[in-house]
Write a structure and sequence with these properties.
Blueprint: H1 7-12, E1 38-43, H2 47-56, E2 63-69, H3 73-83, E3 90-91, E4 107-110, H4 117-126, E5 130-133, H5 141-154, E6 158-160, H6 168-179, E7 185-195, H7 201-206, H8 209-212, H9 216-232, E8 238-244, E9 258-264, E10 270-276, E11 278-289, E12 293-296, E13 307-311, E14 314-316, H10 325-338, H11 347-365, E15 371-372, H12 383-386
Parallel strand pairs: 1-2, 1-4, 2-3, 4-5, 5-6, 7-10
Antiparallel strand pairs: 7-11, 8-9, 8-15, 9-10, 11-12, 12-13, 13-14
Length: about 400
């Protein structure tokens, strides 16, 4: 499947520069009748799927819900009935591969616990379906590489659900930094964490290293790792990291708790990040530049994010539209499959974050030793240059 959105193609379309001409929702693929929307199978009916993904289809212009995959038949049947899906649109994990014979499904959304991402992504790709996979991409570098290889072998698209790369506040922050109005970015600070509870089933597997691939770092810290990269539009060349974990706390038998790290970037900027499963909930970042700063607090919630820009002209809070972030990324994936939008967050993006998180944990294990991280990865598309947002009302 040839990707029509090459770097050269973007330049020819006038999209290779900064924000002018970027693709806004519905612009890459205008509002379509339901019969023309691409069908998604949602795999895993946990909190995220029930609370965000399935409701998100109501706000999609290019995507629709076509099937459900769950190990809980009663839950799946009740949801299918509520969504108007036929009985043959329900699958379990045993008969999952039969999706290959369902022409109503073009894309599979993997919303399973992290340790199952690789298996079901690869099975979906072998079934001839495109895949939108939740982050973190997997629990190991090897699994990420296998997922990328499977997508290439199947000639299908693999996108990682980095919703913040398609969200108005984060896009505005990127563009402000790219404009140079605040001067050169010098320091990016990200703090992403929350309290966890072993009595909560969705936290229990996140606190299991084998199932989560990194505890708080894989669940919350990944937002900071990814944000520091897309805000600066460059990749770190080295990292140092430290952890503070109370092993008498039953939550942290196999994972680290509080982790703090420092990235060094080629431009000279420094990235400082923290994550924890035992501090007050926060998803915030700030960028200190030569002539001003950006503060996003919160900066990665599903809604209600706030951006403050402080520069030579004073302080202001840009008026930004609220969107359904899950509908946005599902529509974007549908337009990628149609060849109407570039693949902004491919499997390689997920692999880069996995490698960086492994480097952080490696540094922690070595008492804060410096780990080189310049592996040559460069993103194919800058979100600030190709992803648009609707105009404020």
């Amino acid at each position: 499947m040839t990707d029509s959105f090459s770097r050269r193609g973007l330049i020819q379309l006038g999209l290779g520069g900064a924000a002018a001409g970027v693709l806004a929702p519905g612009q890459a693929g205008a509002q379509r009748p339901d019969s023309e929307k691409l069908g998604f199978a949602v795999v895993g009916l946990g909190k995220l799927a029930l609370g965000q993904i399935v409701p998100g289809f109501l706000n999609c212009s290019s995507a629709k819900l076509a099937a459900l995959v769950s190990g809980h038949p009663d839950k799946a049947r009740a949801l299918a009935a509520a969504q108007g899906l036929p009985v043959d649109a329900i699958y379990d994990y045993g008969n999952f591969d039969r999706i290959a014979h369902n022409p109503r499904i073009q894309i599979v959304y993997i919303a399973l616990p992290n340790f199952l991402h690789a298996e079901y992504t690869i099975r979906a790709l072998k079934a001839g379906k495109h895949v939108l996979c939740e982050k973190p991409m997997a629990t190991s570098i090897a699994d990420c590489e296998a997922m990328i290889a499977a997508a290439k072998a199947a000639d299908r698209r693999l996108m990682i659900a980095y919703r913040c790369q398609y969200e108005p506040l984060n896009l505005e922050a990127m563009r402000r930094l790219r404009s140079g109005a605040l001067g050169r970015p010098r320091l990016v600070v990200t703090d992403m964490g929350r309290q966890s509870d072993l009595a909560e089933p969705s936290d229990a597997w996140r606190l299991d290293m084998a199932k989560s691939g990194g505890g708080a770092l894989a669940d919350m810290g990944i937002y900071g790792v990814n944000a520091s990269r897309y805000l600066l539009n460059e990749e770190p060349v080295e990292v140092r990291a430290w952890a503070q974990t109370n092993r008498s706390d039953p939550r942290f038998r196999t994972t680290e708790d509080l982790i703090s790290w420092q990235f060094r970037f080629p431009s000279g900027a420094i990235g400082e990040g923290s994550t924890s499963f035992s501090y007050a909930g926060t998803m915030a970042y700030r960028v200190l530049c030569e002539h001003g700063r950006l503060v996003a607090d919160p900066g990665a919630f599903y809604g209600g994010n706030r951006l403050t820009v402080e520069g030579t002209a004073g302080e202001r809070q840009p008026k930004l539209p609220e969107i359904d972030q899950f509908a946005r990324e599902m529509d974007w994936m549908a337009d990628v499959v149609r060849g109407k939008a570039p693949l902004v967050s491919p499997g390689e993006e997920g692999l880069q974050d996995m490698r960086l998180m492994r480097a952080i944990l490696d540094s922690v294990a070595r008492g804060g030793a410096t780990i080189r991280t310049d592996w040559g990865y460069r993103r194919a598309f800058d979100p600030a240059a190709v992803v648009g947002v609707p105009a404020p009302a």
